[in-house]
């Protein structure tokens, strides 16, 4: 066998040996070995669900919204109405608190057509 073939084989073998020694150390440092041994990592905390579910309806120039809060924390909702005509004044309702298990009704109107309606939410303090 030629000398270069032996040198190549020895370099490949030493590289494989170094990789075999470094991989377990890298896995341990990354925390994979502890998880594989049965020690489960604690689950990430999930945020508590909150916020009222709102449904809006437009009937001609009138807007009606019903917001129901099925969660244990209160939510503050506000109805926003954008009127289609440039001379018609857009309106924002006063914020209303929706307690746990409660439903509120919000309404507003334009003189003529309604262009857009949306609800904003804020956590009660």
TrEMBL record:
<protein>
    <recommendedName>
        <fullName>Secreted protein</fullName>
    </recommendedName>
</protein>
<feature type="signal peptide">
    <location>
        <begin position="1"/>
        <end position="29"/>
    </location>
</feature>
<keyword id="KW-0732">Signal</keyword>
């Amino acid at each position: 066998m030629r000398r270069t073939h032996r040198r190549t084989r020895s370099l490949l073998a030493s590289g494989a040996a170094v990789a075999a020694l470094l991989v377990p150390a890298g896995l341990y440092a990354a925390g994979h070995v502890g998880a594989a041994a049965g020690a489960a990592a604690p689950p990430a905390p999930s945020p508590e669900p909150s916020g009222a579910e709102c449904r809006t309806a437009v009937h001609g120039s009138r807007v009606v919204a019903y917001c129901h809060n099925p969660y244990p924390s209160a939510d503050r909702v506000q109805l926003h109405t954008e009127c289609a005509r440039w001379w018609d004044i857009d309106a924002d309702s006063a914020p209303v608190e929706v307690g746990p298990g409660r439903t509120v009704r919000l309404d507003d109107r334009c003189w003529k057509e309604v262009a857009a309606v949306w609800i904003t939410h804020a956590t009660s303090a």
